[in-house]
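Propose amino acids for all 106 sites.
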């Protein structure tokens, strides 16, 4: 039988996981993460590639950074964003593969 402390820990983990996954609840944020898989980019580069206004990109990047998906790195006057952890790329690739499998079975 689980103690209240263990149950709370599991619930807390579920809540944190939910918040982490919520970052992918917006298609534009998914596009940004997929683009950053290829390496660091600044807001201008992301904006031009995805044809999204820089102000919107900045908002999405702040959300992704807050949720732990990306981190920023200053190089001189420019700020570049990159995937915060290589395991995130692996997670995204696995999620994509599983999604395609599930989609075929619908």
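Proposal:
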């Amino acid at each position: 039988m689980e103690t209240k402390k263990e149950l709370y820990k599991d619930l807390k983990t579920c809540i944190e996981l939910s918040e982490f996954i919520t970052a992918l609840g917006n298609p534009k944020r998914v596009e940004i993460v997929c683009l950053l898989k290829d390496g660091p980019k600044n807001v201008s580069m992301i904006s031009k590639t995805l044809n999204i206004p820089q102000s919107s990109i900045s908002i999405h990047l702040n959300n992704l950074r807050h949720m732990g998906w990306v981190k920023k790195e200053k190089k001189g006057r420019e700020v570049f964003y990159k995937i915060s952890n290589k395991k995130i790329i692996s997670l995204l690739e696995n999620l994509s593969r599983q999604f395609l499998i599930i989609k075929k079975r619908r």
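Residues 4-105 form a domain with the Arc Repressor Mutant, subunit A fold (CATH 1.10.10.10). The first strand starts at residue 41 and ends at 42.
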